[in-house]
Amino acid sequence: MSNTCLICQNPVSYKKLYQFMDSNLKDSYDIFECPTCHVGKTSPWPTDLSVFYKEDSYNKPQEGLNYYLKGILLRHEIKRIIHHTKTKKILDLGCGFGDLSKNAFNMGLEPIAADASQQHPYYLKSIPEIPYLHFNYETLELQNPQKIEGAVVILRHVLEHIKDPHSFLKQWKKYKAGYVYIVLPNFDRPELRFFKNCDNLLGLPYHLWHFNLSSLKALLRTIDAKIIGHGFDTIPTVVDSFNVIIRQKNCPQMVKSILQSKLFYILGLPLNIFFPNNVVWVIAKINHD
């Protein structure tokens, strides 16, 4: 498997790292590694990525506990963005339910939300002050791009789904965005080595790319972006990985009922103390000289 790496832009002969089944044990996928930047690449890619962007996916509220816990994490990340960029204007790309934009608005920022759906996300329907723009993930075109000049482009769990991340980031440079904030699963996470095919963050086949800090830095160098902050977060995913195991194994119904209960989910949240740093984040300033 030899061509040009779409991450570091170097000629590359990919080497095969893993062969995994997807979470439903239906199809087999290989993950290849670029030996230069150490990004992982899923092969083959699904022919239709549109199923990932269902029009009505974010037109309803989230489950209460998930919404509460996610809100804590989102507010922590918004403070991180403010600390590093000193910028109030943000573009929440891939905004999903719109809860990050809602939290940012309540914290005094000036959010703009964007996603593939033509419909407004659930949590933004009651906040007309937050503009919602359509983004085409195939053509990489944003509606009214002049609105985001100088903004922080927030890419939370977005970049791993993009076919050509280099061209994708160059588009935000073209639109004169000020910064990018990238968050995605850390390819160096202990969970992957432990759970292997059942790692909930693996996301096959819709995670086309598998980044670590090294490959993120290599990608940002290709668009002349200066990293001003980076680090790791730990999010509670161990229980979700156990549920992947349950779906794959012929467990007794009583065991399934216990492991899939809300009580087990709550009690299992601290388990990620044994699997830290499963998410990597980077903030970079885009150079327009």
How would you characterize the overall build of this protein?
The protein has an eight-stranded mixed sheet, sandwiched between helices. The chain has one domain (2-286): Rossmann fold (3-Layer(aba) Sandwich). The mean pLDDT is 91. Helices cover 28% and strands 25% of the residues. It has eight helices and 14 strands.
Give structural attributes:
289 residues; alpha/beta; Rossmann fold; 8-stranded mixed sheet; 4-stranded antiparallel sheet; 8 helices; 14 strands
Order of helices and strands: EEEEEHEHEEEEHEHEHEHHHE
CATH architecture: 3-Layer(aba) Sandwich
CATH level-1 class:
Alpha Beta
CATH topology: Rossmann fold
Mean of residue pLDDT values: 91
Portion of residues within helices = 25-40%
Largest sheet: 8 strands, mixed
Structural class: alpha/beta
CATH superfamily: Vaccinia Virus protein VP39
Strand content: 15-25%
The rounded Rg comes to 19 Å
Count of helical stretches: 8
The total of beta strands comes to 14
* Widest beta sheet: strand line-up: 9-8-7-6-10-11-14-13
Quick structural overview:
With 289 residues, the protein is of the alpha/beta class. The chain has 8 helices and 14 strands. The chain has an 8-stranded mixed beta sheet, sandwiched between helices.
